[in-house]
Design goal:
heterodimer; A: alpha+beta; Sortase, Chain: A; 28% helix; B: alpha+beta; Immunoglobulin-like; Rossmann fold; 9-stranded mixed beta sheet; 7-stranded mixed beta sheet
């Protein structure tokens, strides 16, 4: 079989050649090379297509997941406000909303999840365990992705107002008073000292193409007045 | 294939069918792989895209152990260390027993990374299993490893002792049975430090987490918290898992230390700054020292003693006959000469390490020392301060006169320093050392650090290249500084080193350092042994000596009669001493000390470009003859009968280490949450791939319709 395939130049892997098969050994070879090249390119096209679609799908999936989760979280938040503890947004979730964070001037509304590990913040900004819950006294830290939920931090300016709703429906207003770029090891910003504030942490620079950089953009907003 | 065979029509059709089938099958296979990867990704949910490339500081294993609390319930072998040290004059011989205990029902291999003094010459290793003793053999490192692996695989109890750094070793013990104990016993010899009238014996107990610069080049291993990087290829070997300290829980790895001290002359004081000790007087010059209570491997043990002032030794000369050769160790205290050399103006550059490992008590000590140093400057001097962590930053763009105003500004600047981030030491050294010579002033660089880095050799090379006529003085800060870095950096930088282990010591240690900086140096020291050129002395060139430091050299000789002649320049005044060899007394293990010095010199020559193959061969020869553990030779001990049944599996675990005392786990390993996805990267790569697919498709079409060019 193999012998027949390689020695006959006319069978062009399923597509007939436009020209009649030339005679002579050299021409046979040229045809064979061309056919192999075509087969190779066929494989290449298929492989590139699959890999390309996979990558694009992957990128789209990250954003779709981020958006969709917030919708499911809105429902879970309503249940939380109604008194349910640890209201899971979907049955197998290992996290739950702990606060609603909004920025009326920029049309931002986000549900903050418990925990700021990589798994959680795919769905929403995450509250850093060990720091006071948003809306409580002390330094509440929240981490999130710079290209999904916390992308708006790029445009936040000093003096902007952030409002946090707690599970008991009470509101706390904050005013942005510090914007800084820090190294990821500067964990002192998580220290629970000083005035009551929100510390929002995301990756920096905002338009870096890869994840995993060493810099963080940290926005601090100080609590205004008391709870409403 | 040049013979054209005209196939039949049936053959053509069959070939066509086969080709179609092959192509469609492979396309289908690829599609299946692609789709299943996508599905796996969605099902996994965490999403590969969100997993950032691991940085060496990520401490994956450290966090794994963190979950187990502080030690007692760890499913890994643990180690108890018993240390017995005999001191005679300026030489110490130590026996260290590491008891590996397996608390589990499984068979285990335990791997323990531990420190020893940086000049320790390890010349004996044996293992004890109940009442059996198996002596270790010295072998070339790879051969020793192979012998160990073979024994491990065939179920024999075995131990391997390897050197990672001159002050860091790994013992591996294979086939520790369920609830069994195996003891690794090693012995080493070292010369002690004698400086400013004080002898000191330092025994480190824990390897502090080292900063690993560079980008990862290998996958993470379960036995280490750092991956190999382009700058530290052996990172996994020097980063044992670190337990997160839990309040109220005891650290792991208990240590007992006993020292029998024989000063040879009546003793004045014996003290331990960091551990409570019981001292028993045996006679005027001898003491037995034990720890009041069992310590844990969290900080260096240091024993310091002085002898009666009028009996302070000016000279110690030991010789040992070994296999037809004589070895000698000479320690000589140069006289304190009054000199009246004109004092040159100084330029002092302080470098302070403000990395995460310095967080806590270390930075407090370093700041205190720095403030004191700045206050002591003379207005005629110039100075600058450089702080470094992930980045290096000078206080002034260039050194400024030490006016009251500038000193005041410096003090404020120092007070505001915070310890966090990485330890990019090369950046700081590049700023501090400029490679220049300027004969009109003395340039001194005072480097305050814990030396917690994994790329020592690269840093030594940098110091050698950029030193110029500057001198580098290291100040080892904290509970467990890297002694190899401190002493070798100072040696390469032609300065000296000092240690500060707690805030209370700052004043005294810094005053001593300043006295050294301000006093003339003993230079061009030459030691001529009887026997001339046939004598091999190490170190070959005696380093410059600062106030209070003795000359220490070792030699291999043919004859032990005649005089040793020592000469040098103290400032501008020549100095010379004749010492009759007849004054020498017999010493033990002097040959080993000589071999250890020679190994160090050979390894140092790598920095000056000696070919590694040559150095390696010489070190292996020397180390084999003297039974020394070096970077190229290890000890291996194997018990003959098979212990582990063929059907029992062997598990492997790294013995967890404590965080060095006073360190902050979060400052070393902690970091802010990550906040970025690879979505845009995926989209970009995906689009590129799709574009390439389109190009390939177009090319394929062209190929389909293009005519085959006819050959003439």
């Amino acid at each position: 079989m193999r012998h027949a395939l390689v020695s006959y130049p006319d069978v062009a892997l399923g597509v007939e050649c436009a020209f009649p098969p030339p005679e002579g050994a050299l021409r046979h070879r040229a045809g064979r090379v061309r056919r192999l090249a075509r087969a190779g390119l066929g494989f290449l096209v298929a492989a590139l297509l699959v890999a390309g679609l996979w990558q694009v799908g992957n990128g789209a999936y990250i954003h779709a997941k981020a958006e969709l989760a917030q919708i499911l979280l809105a429902h879970a938040w309503n249940r939380t406000l109604a008194g349910e503890r640890h209201a899971r947004p979907w049955p197998w979730a290992d996290t739950w909303p702990v606060a609603r964070l909004s920025m009326p001037s920029r049309g931002v509304e986000l549900f903050v999840l418990a925990g700021a590990n990589g798994r959680t913040i795919a769905f929403g900004p995450g509250h850093v365990f060990g720091t006071p819950l948003p809306g409580e006294t002390g330094n509440s830290a929240i981490g999130g992705h710079r290209d999904t939920h916390l992308a708006f931090l790029r445009d936040v300016a000093l003096g902007d107002e952030i409002v946090v709703e707690r599970p008991d429906r009470r509101l706390q207003r904050y005013r942005v008073d510090w914007l800084q770029v820090l190294d990821k090891r500067e964990t002192w910003v998580l220290k629970n000292e000083g005035p009551t504030r929100l510390t929002l942490i995301t990756c920096y620079p905002f338009d870096a193409i890869r994840a995993g950089g060493a810099e963080r953009y940290v926005v601090t907003a100080r609590a205004q007045d008391g709870l409403l | 294939m040049l013979i054209a065979v005209r196939p039949t029509r049936a053959q053509r059709r069959a070939a066509d069918v086969v080709a179609r089938i092959v192509l469609s099958l492979s396309a289908a296979a690829m599609a299946v792989v692609g789709v299943s990867m996508l599905l796996a990704l969605i099902a996994g949910d965490a999403g590969a895209a969100e997993a950032a490339p691991m940085k060496p500081k990520d401490a994956q294993t450290g966090t794994l152990f963190l979950k187990s609390g502080a030690g007692t319930n760890l499913a890994v072998p643990l180690v108890t260390t018993d240390v017995d040290i005999r001191v005679s004059g300026t030489v110490a011989r130590a026996r260290v027993r590491q008891v590996f205990r397996n608390p589990n029902d499984d068979w285990y291999e335990g791997i323990y990374v531990f420190p020893l003094p940086e000049n320790a010459a390890v010349d004996h290793v044996r293992i004890r299993i109940r009442d059996r003793v198996i002596e270790g053999e010295i072998k070339e490192r790879q051969a020793a490893k192979a012998a160990y692996e073979q024994a491990k695989a065939s179920g024999q109890r075995a131990a391997l002792l390897e050197q990672e750094r001159p002050n860091m070793f790994t013992s591996s013990v294979a086939n520790i049975g369920p609830h069994e104990e195996i003891t690794v016993e090693l012995e080493y010899q070292q010369t002690l430090r004698y400086d400013g009238g004080r002898y000191s014996l330092r025994f480190p107990t824990v390897v502090g987490p080292r900063y690993i610069p560079g980008s990862p080049v290998a996958a993470p291993l379960p036995t280490a918290w750092a991956q190999a990087t382009d700058q530290v290829p052996d990172a996994p070997r020097i980063t044992p898992p670190v337990l997160r300290p839990v309040e109220g829980a005891k650290p792991v790895n208990p240590v007992n230390i006993r020292v029998v001290l024989d000063a040879g002359v009546p003793l004045a004081t014996v003290a331990s700054a960091y551990h409570a000790i019981d001292v028993r007087e045996l006679d005027a010059g001898r003491r037995e020292v034990v720890l009041k209570e069992t310590a844990h491997a969290t900080r260096d043990f240091e024993l310091v003693w002085t002898v009666m002032p009028d009996r302070a030794p000016k000279l110690a000369l030991f010789t040992e006959e070994r296999e037809g050769k004589s070895y000698a160790l000479l320690m000589l205290m140069p006289p304190a000469l009054a000199t009246s050399a004109p004092r040159l103006p100084r330029e002092v550059i302080f470098v302070i390490d403000t990395s995460g490992s310095m967080h806590g008590t270390s930075i407090a000590q370093a700041k205190e020392a720095l403030e004191l140093a700045v206050r002591r400057l003379d207005p005629a001097d110039r100075f600058n301060i450089i702080e470094f962590n992930s980045y290096a930053q000078p206080m002034f763009a260039a050194a400024r006169p030490a006016t009251a105003e500038n000193r005041e500004q410096a003090t404020r600047w120092v007070r505001n320093l915070r310890a966090q981030g990485g330890t990019e030491m090369a950046a700081a050294l590049n700023l501090a050392l400029n490679g220049r010579e300027s004969p009109d002033r003395v340039r001194q660089v005072v480097f305050l650090t814990d030396g917690a880095v994994g790329n020592e050799d690269a840093l030594f090379k940098l110091i050698a290249e950029r030193l110029g006529d500057s001198r580098l003085f290291t100040v080892g800060i904290g509970s467990a500084p890297n002694s190899h870095f401190m002493s070798k950096a100072a040696r390469v930088g032609r300065g000296t080193f000092t240690y500060i282990g707690k805030v209370e010591e700052v004043k005294e240690r810094m005053s001593e350092l300043f006295a050294k900086l301000e006093s003339p140096v003993l230079k061009n020291v030459r030691v001529e042994w009887p026997g001339g050129d046939r004598v091999e002395t190490w170190p070959k060139r005696v380093p410059d000596l600062y106030l209070g430091e003795p000359i220490v050299v070792t030699a291999a000789l043919d004859r032990t009669d005649g005089d040793v002649v020592v000469s040098g320049f103290l400032g501008e005044s020549p100095w010379r001493a004749h010492l009759p060899m007849s004054r020498a007394s017999d010493g033990e293990g002097i040959g080993v000390l000589w071999a250890r010095e020679k190994v160090a010199a050979l390894v140092d020559s790598l920095r000056e470009g000696s070919p590694e193959a040559e150095v390696r061969a010489q070190v292996i020869d020397l180390a084999t003859a003297h039974r020394l553990v070096t970077r190229y030779t290890s000890f291996v001990a194997v018990e003959q009968p098979r212990a582990r049944p063929a059907d029992a599996a062997l598990k492997q675990a790294a013995v967890p280490t404590n965080l060095s005392e006073g360190w902050s786990y979060d400052a070393v390993f902690g970091e802010l949450p990550q906040g970025a996805t690879d979505a845009w990267f995926n989209a970009l790569i995906g689009s590129l791939l799709l574009a390439m697919a389109a190009i390939a498709l177009a090319a394929r079409r062209r190929l389909s319709f293009a005519p085959v060019r006819a050959h003439p």
